[in-house]
Amino acid sequence: MAQKLVILGAGGHGRALIELLRDLGEPEIAGLVDAAPGREAVLGVPVLGDESVLPGLRAAGVRLACIALGDAGLRLAAAARLAALGFGFPALVHPSVVRARSAEVGEGTVVLPRAVLGAAARIGRFCIVNTGAILEHDVVVEEGAHCAPGCVLPGGVRVGPRALIGAGAACRPQVSIGAGAVVGVGAAVTGDVPPGAVVGGVPARPLPAE
Ligand SMILES: CC(=O)SCCNC(=O)CCNC(=O)[C@H](O)C(C)(C)COP(=O)(O)OP(=O)(O)OC[C@H]1O[C@@H](n2cnc3c(N)ncnc32)[C@H](O)[C@@H]1OP(=O)(O)O
């Protein structure tokens, strides 16, 4: 019998994951769960309710989940709640991804169309490798981090837990991006970025705080 999977989060990332799962062909999508009221379906997939429906889904034999929340903290917290209910989290890698045989992808991580995972790249749990991102050989991405569309991480770059590499940003080889740091859209990172820092520009510099 086909495995069934529930998607938590009916927003833009949820729509991206519906498309990814349809391209993969499995597991079958049981439905979406979202706290926001008012939607019956997204791209033809039923919105089943908020998280209160999850124990019933689990009892009905839905064993798998993916967390479609862009915010890393919310994504990891939701993963812990669903793990406590007994859900498992497959790694979802789009068929168009160019993945070295030696590249590792952790549970609950999603890799969107046309991304590239180089030799010995290691992507941790509950990460997002977004459309067209290039993660070269020996790149390490830690739990909950997000590599946004079109970013370029050359050999040996390390991305700390929950960090965000913005769309189209690029890094010098071997640099480290600290935990929870944000690299802005289009940045060129030439040196290590401290934990929690927000940087942008070419070359990347700390951005003014709000
Ligand atoms: C499929 C998907 O959609 S995945 C989505 C992935 N998401 C991304 O890639 C978004 C990444 N986020 C960014 O790049 C954001 O601009 C951030 C986080 C760097 C800054 O956002 P905010 O904190 O809201 O900053 P805000 O927009 O108020 O800008 C603050 C200052 O920084 C500047 N700034 C903002 N972003 C950048 C950037 N990427 N590069 C250079 N300067 C920037 C602004 O011009 C502004 O400068 P000013 O004060 O001189 O006018």
From TrEMBL:
Record-stated family: Belongs to the transferase hexapeptide repeat family.
Coiled coil residues, start to end: none
SUPFAM superfamilies per the UniProt record, alphabetical: Trimeric LpxA-like enzymes
CDD domains listed in its UniProt record: LbH_AT_putative
NCBIfam families referenced in this protein's UniProt entry, alphabetically: NeuD_NnaD
Taxonomic path: Bacteria, Pseudomonadati, Pseudomonadota, Alphaproteobacteria, Acetobacterales
Residues annotated as domain PglD N-terminal: 4-81
Pfam family, one: PglD_N
Domain of life: Bacteria
InterPro entries given in the database record: AcTrfase_PglD-like, PglD_N, Trans_hexapeptide_repeat, Trimer_LpxA-like_sf
Catalytic site: 137
Binding site for acetyl-CoA: 146
Annotated residues for binding of substrate: 70
Record's protein name: Carbonic anhydrase
Site (Increases basicity of active site His): 138
